[in-house]
């Protein structure tokens, strides 16, 4: 069966009539350095350097849209050639960018990342964009945005006013919110933002900070116990925690479902976009009507494909999804 026909079948499998997700988050330009040999922090290292479009929100929006979920992106970009390039790239993937605001400066952030010989992050520095642009956009058009969409994916660490306004509007209109941390500054200081959230997805390092626990070397069953306890006290509806190469664990308080999901074998190129991809794949599954356990399988698959790419997102994700037996079975 040809790829185009498979893509058509995949689209028809997703029960997405009258569904549209708003992704609220940042745009970054990522500067990534890949070491050719053993990385020496205090020495000179030969390698390759690439500039790619990034940002948690941007990455999530592109990946969800590539999985054929109608997507609206809410963000800001600089009124420059690079900013226009980012917007054009998203439009080419059929993403609604009418809520992306152009700013004279501070519309986008920058991320400097160094990856070692194994493709793992060895160090990074972030320059955040000016959140006032997104905050103003949501102040003026937030109510309209939430009314137009059925689901919301929110980068929680933009700033507290943005997160609180989005969550308030979502509650007012009965729209589920899926949260992903960024630098953990906001959610670490204001964990009450998680109350009532449909699903919160984080990594084990963020989970340790949130739950004041240590998960390294701890069996998945024990970690699941921590998740259940935290969901009960926080008011979350469900939570997923990634464990790096060890997979992920999850708990859904609305169904009582919990479990462990191992990773699929991959050829590692760059691990930096894995978390965003996992979140996007899982949320796409949830929006499509899958239970959390099956949505996590989608997230695991998408994260694996992204790890095999040097970009912040997997460029051929739609074709991979169309030809994948596991996703075909889940979404068929």
Automatic annotation (TrEMBL):
Q: Does the keyword Chaperone apply?
A: no
Read off the Gene3D superfamilies from this record: 3.40.1190.20
Task: Please give the organism.
Answer: Paenibacillus contaminans
State which residue ranges cross the membrane: none
Tell me which InterPro entries the record gives: PfkB_dom, Ribokinase-like
PANTHER family, alphabetized? RIBOKINASE (PTHR10584:SF166), SUGAR KINASE (PTHR10584)
From which domain of life does this come?
Bacteria
The protein in question is named Sugar kinase
MF terms per GO, please?
kinase activity
Instruction: Kindly state which keywords UniProt assigns to this record, in alphabetical order.
Output: Kinase, Transferase
Q: Provide the organism lineage as a comma list.
A: Bacteria, Bacillati, Bacillota, Bacilli, Bacillales
**Assigned GO CC terms:** cytosol
> Which parts of the sequence belong to the Carbohydrate kinase PfkB domain?
19-312
